[in-house]
Amino acid sequence: MDKKFCLHCLLRDCDREDTLKSIKEHIKKIADRDKASDTEYKRRVALCAECEHISQGTCLKCGCYPEFKAAFKKQKCPVKKW
After folding, report:
1. Whose C-alpha in 5, 33, 64, 77 is 20 to 30 A from the C-alpha of 51?
2. pTM
């Protein structure tokens, strides 16, 4: 049986392991000077997980994958949640 997408989930919560795996590989390649700390990353992703603008692992305001965007130190949430 196919797993259905939750309209209000991050990729980690959807059945999109291939996309999430690719994002995690790209995050590993971010230079340390450009990467948010682990604590900050987790805080940002937690806020995104509760956001009403997330649909099927994508931010409806900017089109990003929150798990990826949150990994960059200088990125900002389009609705100023982080």
Report:
1. 33
2. 0.78
